[in-house]
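TL;DR need structure tokens for one chain.
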Amino acid sequence: MFDFEPCGCNADRVSRRNFLRAAFGGAGGLAMAPFAFAQDTKVKEEKKKGGGGAGGKGKAKSVILLWMGGGPSQLDTFDPKAGHENGGPFKALDTAVKGVQVSEHLPTVAAQMQNLALVRSIYTGEPEHFRASYMMHTGVKFLESFPYPSMGSLISYELSDTLDTPGYVSVGSGSFGPTFLGYEHAPFVIDNPHGALQMLRDAMRQKETLKLADELSAEFDATRGGLNVKKRDTFYERIEKILESSFSKALDINQEPQELRDAYGKGRFGQGCLLARRLVQAGVKFIEVHLGGWDTHENNFDRTQKLMGELDPGFGTLVKDLKEKSLLDETLVLWMGEFGRTPMINKDKGRDHWANGFSVVIGGGGIQGGRLLGETDKTGCQITREPTKVADLLATIYSSVGIDPKKKYYSPQGSLVKATEDGEPIKKLLA
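>> reply
TL;DR here they are.
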């Protein structure tokens, strides 16, 4: 359901598994995630009333999250400490923004830094994979008894205006979901960007195989099937509509020029970034593209260099492509993982979990490009300027799409829940 790596960190797998199954309920594949069938009545009423907050005039119409599962090393990507023993073997590379350097293995991204803002001072205090991932997706600490919707689901809920196009798509893996906002705002999962369109066609073929079963169970359906039959029928009705929509056409990345496809990178992540751009054009409001494998307790430098070989063309070309197609101003692009890695290099030439000062990159959609927010000291161990809360980051994202971060939503228990917990938009980042 979500791409966590086993790493010997004593993660609470039982609690996590039960929580995801019961509370988030999406992301397992085509059969569940994209097609929810009913929202809580109070949630519908709350959306109709407008919530209790005046949303901003956000420039962004869509958000693309590039999710680095496992936690990427900030020192080896966007906060290099070349020359210090903690810095490792990679050299620092000048970017298009004077005075801002990144890893030598990110040249394509470096060339786009004037369109991006770099935050080097995110902190969470959550060094465990699940809890940290949850916090980065919701802006709050994990509490199993009261789950929050992910930002993907909340943005889908607020911005989507049709059921013919999923509002939230996750490419490469499942992700966190809607909780009380309704299953229709769970992530529509595309495991492989190369086979996305075929996935829909296969689902329709499954419908044909059910015709005989329908005939045999007609009496049961009429007397006892109830809601389950309605859900199944609604599922296939939506599949048929989606196959006829612009969303379906967007799934065919083979329609893109070969030169552009190559520029994104031939792997699943790069092609997923290309698919994300096409989904933005099709009206999808939130797209999450996964690149896992960053949990580098051992052999950090070889593994991270290889991952950056996938990351750089996908991320850099995505920003360039959006800019050239006049889509960047209305598309917010966000790069992050659940935490960073320790500045200190361990005995296995690896880096361990680090939640006390790591990097996030954000651009487009009303974000002021070329900005640098926050700083860590020469060792990478201490934030020395502008410490930044995750809630503030999410409040900035919500503001960029016109959602008031202080808006409140009804939970099924009748209580009101804020979009973010005490988060304030970061004025320095907003254009």
